[in-house]
């Protein structure tokens, strides 16, 4: 059984507050953000334990490669070369 939610007060920088001002349920948004962060950290730990070196620079390089491949795929579909 889970415990009921607990109210806390935190100080946030302006750019983060602006994001929360635009959502209907700031508590749910923050909770999901923290859960996503924990999954992200757990994934990196699993990869690290398996012998992979995961760096922010490497993740960004791969992100750029995927974006480039997506763009090529979109061009091929637009040209009818599916």
Describe it.
With 82 residues, this protein is an all-alpha fold. The protein folds into 2 domains: 14-51; 53-82. Helices cover 67% and strands 0% of the residues.
What structural class should be given to the helix and strand makeup?
mainly alpha
> Largest sheet, if any?
none
Q: Which blocks of ≥5 consecutive residues have pLDDT under 50? A: none
- Share of helix, binned: 55-70%
Order of helices and strands: HHH
Q: Which geometry do the CA atoms define?
A: extended
Strand content: under 5%
Number of helices: 3
Mean pLDDT: 93
**Terminal Cα separation, in Å?**
51 Å
Total number of beta strands: 0
Indicate the radius of gyration in whole angstroms.
19 Å
Total domains: 2
Name a few traits of the molecule:
82 residues; 3 helices
Q: Outline of this structure?
A:
This protein is mostly helical. The chain has three helices and no strands.
Blueprint (SSEs and pairs):
Blueprint: H1 14-21, H2 26-49, H3 56-78
